[in-house]
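Thread: Newbie trying to understand structure tokens

Hi all, I'm a second-year student working on a class project, and my supervisor (Dr. K.) asked me to get a predicted structure for one chain before our next meeting. I've only ever worked with sequences, so writing a 3D structure as a token string is new to me. If someone could post the tokens and maybe explain what I'm looking at, I'd be very grateful. Here's the chain:
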Amino acid sequence: MDMSSTTFSLETTDQGFLLNSSDWNESVAEQLAAVSNIELSAEHWEIILFIRHYYQQFKHLPNARVFTKAIAKELGVAKGNSRYLHRLFPDGPLKYACKLAGLPKPPTCL
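---
Reply by user tm_fold:
Sure, no problem. This is what the structure looks like when written as tokens:
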């Protein structure tokens, strides 16, 4: 088996969320991002690591409004606004931040 291949066989939901969050690492995040056509930048990582920390701290995922407000409080209003977050994650900031962070699908996301 060629381990240098960039394909991976992690168990995910039909929407691409990890079934086992302990499978997550930065390489997995890069692979999940590639599947979603997202090239991760330092700005993406800041949000991904933020939502992982939020989930570890509060043991639940916020809704989109609370997510944006929490980012504004922690990282500043320039980053805690929907325009900035949609630039990073055009198809849904909370949904894709959670997906790339190896977290469950937020209950408020379709």
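A couple of things are worth pointing out once you decode it. The domain at 21-100 is CATH 1.10.10.370 (Arc Repressor Mutant, subunit A). The longest helix spans residues 42-58. Feel free to ask follow-ups in this thread.
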